[in-house]
């Protein structure tokens, strides 16, 4: 089954934490209904967007005033995504269609999005509050929440799914997502880099089997592409965001894909640093990374999200888009610089405003040398069924006062009449269509794509695909129209000019492949520059708590998840140490030790890598190179820990042993050993100390574990690393499971015992479980084909102790599998915890009896209470609260952070 599932599914809650947009949901606070009118907005778009037909124009505005349908996408490898989709269709949709009406209104089941490949995207216009609160939807809601939590479903706006589909991305490519947070598109891109990988690896290992459903499910995937590293994906995705907190949302969102080919960085995209590559003997000059594909999904004024962010009707003003035009152009120019010749950049916004769209495309191409250097690609044949309008050749610009300007000439005429000679609202020539004399006047802007809300009941969006035709040198930015000498030169103005000069130098350095200064990161420079600008109007978002609207200052990003139906999780940023806090699984011995002493402790180490909000953020220590992250240190293959791991698991020499990495200055394995692709390793090593801010890299492969004896390897395989390494583990550490009932038992029961003859209750794995030596082993789940609905192959870590076994799975994955495969939402059974709780209660009761001579009936009450509490602790992952209680008390608790 799919790599997503193999790679440990993941914790992490809804959709990467919802961007600035969802924070935590404000479930029970209602703000007064927003009046969905905005005179300037309507006047401007009526004057600018060429919709001639009156009826259509009416539909355009009506759609923008209607709430956005919910939408989601099935993720992971194609086979896996199709399996989860089948469940929706076969188990949940038939129940929903029976509902028909709620509150007098018709109720709609989720509908497949016809143009999305393999119909892996769905949309439904039943309001969220109905889905959340109306009991007949309960099972569907539980399914959505559970699958979203483990990363099999991504709540994503339909239009936001388009840009990655136009990237023409294939495995093996180097890809950059410049403005990636919260990360829904980056997740799509990462999935694309891994398409067909499982099948390729199996092919490379000569283990293709006749009835291998995974290989079949991925048919269409080219098995010869990217097959050089024994089938392992060699491509790279760098997901970047200028905002430090949001870059951690990216980590949160993308980690669940468990990709060794991912790097997360935190830079201002206008100055994205040149990334050094190792020196090739054949190349005398230092080589820098160039990308095959770049996504520039830039910050924008966001009026395409009016349906989702109703406050925008009040907040929208023309200044927002005007203030973003130059940043957007700089981002696109930097993207074109960093592309390989023949490479493509997809530029997108969730704005309908041409100043952020066509005007940016023209300006960027112009700065990069015109149509000889950059092509606009015709995508009209792509995504058949997706309704769209062509980009515009002519447009007008609205200034902050609401005056609409037809051309730059008109602005110039006006400037002549003004004493200060300045354009209104800092309008610039680059914002307008080009005059016929420009070599960019004839660009085929109709190849840009505009998607409007009324066309297929979505948000509004703009997408353009550009191809770099030749090496290029970037022209300097056109100087801004300056005031006459007599105009006042304030300190602020001087500061702005200084920063602008600095920026020019930095841009040049970046273009030449030198590391850029850290100064402009996170928009500090831009803030200075744009201080006097009207703040982009859309920079308002829902916050986690019901803050009054005026305090809601986060940027509304088009892709902040569609106010996920799931309960929100914390989005607090974290230091890397926090972010990497592991959901470490425990052995029975761990649980016993802890439960005996702590069964009633209610505050324990956090278990998920969702950082818990802290009253006060811990002070972050900056490294010498300006970064905050723990360093990335690679281990020598000769390291004794690596040698020990190789021996214990009898790892095939085909598995690369030079890609193991740890995250501490000493460079010694302390708690976790990570694995990365070769390219990620080369990049991290070459760029150490250069000021490149790598926020995340590597998949946790081995975790330190208390071992029951000296012969047992203290490094267990982590569930997210398991799919990467499982195929190379020697058969003496593998157990094969083929029957659905046996799998149910392992999922349902924590620590099933094999000692004292109980192995016989473990079905076909009983004997093997009894005989295999202690420590971590690979459980290969290979359905025997007796159940048509159970075809999901998996590899999972299983820990064998003295007396019992345990599947080392994060609790969300366990719960999601129980629901998905067995439609089982009843509590997980943990006999050990129950026994410990009972023992604790007995002990306490007897102490109390002794000291206070408490009467027997009272003791019984307490005993019952404690036992029940312990049961609840491991019970019912059917709601967040239950899961958190389990966290606290430990059946799947991490031991310590590295
Ligand atoms: C439209 S959102 C991106 C949505 C994202 N692509 C997704 O699909 O989830 C724009 C993002 O750009 C980031 N951003 C703003 N200015 C930036 C800059 N100069 N460089 C890089 N990122 C920037 C914001 O923090 C925000 O996360």
UniProtKB/TrEMBL annotation:
Compartment annotation: Nucleus
InterPro entries, sorted: MeTrfase_RsmB-F_NOP2_cat (IPR049560), MeTrfase_RsmB-F_NOP2_dom (IPR001678), Pre-PUA_NSUN2 (IPR057285), PUA_NSUN2 (IPR057286), RCMT (IPR023267), RCMT_NCL1 (IPR023270), RsmB/NOL1/NOP2-like_CS (IPR018314), SAM-dependent_MTases_sf (IPR029063)
Compositionally biased tracts (Gly residues): 14-23
Compositionally biased residues, Low complexity: 602-617
Taxonomic path: Eukaryota, Fungi, Dikarya, Ascomycota, Pezizomycotina
Residue intervals of the SAM-dependent MTase RsmB/NOP-type domain: 60-469
UniProt-annotated stretches for the region Disordered: 1-24, 477-627, 834-898
Swiss-Prot/TrEMBL keywords: Methyltransferase, Nucleus, RNA-binding, S-adenosyl-L-methionine, Transferase, tRNA processing, tRNA-binding
Binding site for S-adenosyl-L-methionine: 179-185, 241, 268, 297
Keyword Oxidoreductase: no
Compositional bias annotation for Basic residues: 1-13
Basic and acidic residues biased stretches: 494-512, 583-601, 618-627, 835-868
Name this polypeptide is given: WD repeat containing protein 36
UniProt similarity note: Belongs to the class I-like SAM-binding methyltransferase superfamily. RsmB/NOP family.
Active site: 350
